[in-house]
Design brief:
Elements lengths: L4 E5 L1 E3 L15 E3 L1 E2 L9 E3 L18 E10 L4 E18 L5 E7 L11 E10 L19 E3 L6 E4 L1 E4 L10 E6 L8 E2 L26 E4 L2 E10 L22 H8 L4 E12 L1
Parallel strand pairs: 5-13, 10-11
Antiparallel strand pairs: 1-17, 2-3, 4-17, 6-11, 6-16, 7-8, 7-15, 7-17, 9-14, 9-16, 12-13
Length: about 280
């Protein structure tokens, strides 16, 4: 019997690749999924499952974007082994050049503890249950589905929504959301695959960590089963967040790479999230 090792990674549409392309097949995709521009404190909402408000929980604290980053299925009477995984978070901003064309500057988040004062990202490795995620919402086309923007659930990388508004109406890119309600109260579907990895606040297996992702985990999985990696993002608001007060004189070496980036580009926001799952079948 031959073993097959595969890495399932997050890829998604990137509006900056319009008229440029990303490969010889005329796609406009890039690594990871783009995070919408709108700060979730004003754009994002939570839909209570029973239609009532959550006593004791202020609404803005629950406003987050829910991403399904990558998933794999293990069929009936099939065995697999999850060998490893990795995470990706970037921050960035868009500028308009003298020629009127947008120019994006983007940086990978490298510090495992770093986050915006009013925003953050959490990762969730979940067991969706047998068989193949049965019991999840059907992957039917939703009222405003777009590329990588799917109604309640998707088996491929997507920002999941319950309701939302994209302006203008003919916009093909979900990054311009003006309203957003996450499905399932904004919580990832399923149960924790591994105790302690249902909610992860750090970058414990960064995207560029060499060979570590290929043997970071060693978990046998028997089918039928679906395993998925989610990200939950609270998008920052540069107009209202607390700015860093700098000492005089300033010693840039005393700041993290992310804070140094913000000194140069103070309007940066969360730009991209992604993940990868490495599986032996």
């Amino acid at each position: 019997m031959l073993d097959l090792r595969s890495e399932i990674i997050t890829t998604g549409i990137d509006e900056q690749l319009q008229l440029v392309g990303s490969d010889p097949y005329a796609h406009i995709e890039n690594v990871g999924l783009r995070v919408p521009f709108g700060p979730t404190a004003t754009v994002g909402k939570v839909a209570p499952l029973d239609g009532r408000a959550f006593p004791g929980f202020p609404g803005p604290l629950l406003n987050r974007y829910l991403f399904m980053l990558c998933a794999f299925n293990v069929n009936y009477k099939q065995c697999a082994r999850l060998r490893g995984w990795r995470e990706l978070v970037t921050i960035g901003t868009k500028q308009t050049s003298d020629a009127g064309s947008p120019r994006v500057v983007e940086q990978e988040v490298l510090s495992p503890f770093w986050k915006f004062a009013d925003g953050n990202v959490s990762f969730h490795l979940m067991d969706m249950g047998p068989p193949g995620g049965q019991g999840l919402p059907l992957t039917l086309r939703g009222p405003i589905d777009l590329n990588n923007f799917k109604f309640r659930w998707a088996s491929s990388p997507a920002l999941l929504y319950d309701t939302g508004t994209v302006m203008p109406a003919a916009d093909l890119f979900y990054v311009d959301l003006t309203t957003y309600v996450a499905p399932n109260q904004g919580k990832p579907y399923g149960a924790p695959l591994i105790p302690g990895m249902s909610v992860m606040y750090d970058l414990r297996t960064p995207w560029r960590s060499g060979g570590l992702p290929w043997h970071a985990i060693d978990i046998p999985i028997t089918g039928p089963r679906t395993v998925a990696l989610f990200a939950s993002v609270r998008q920052t608001n540069p107009a209202t967040r607390v700015a860093l007060t700098l000492p005089l004189p300033i010693y840039p070496e005393g700041l993290s790479p992310e804070e140094q980036f913000l000194l140069n580009f103070p309007n940066a926001i969360y730009w991209r999230v992604g993940g990868g799952l490495i599986v032996d079948y």
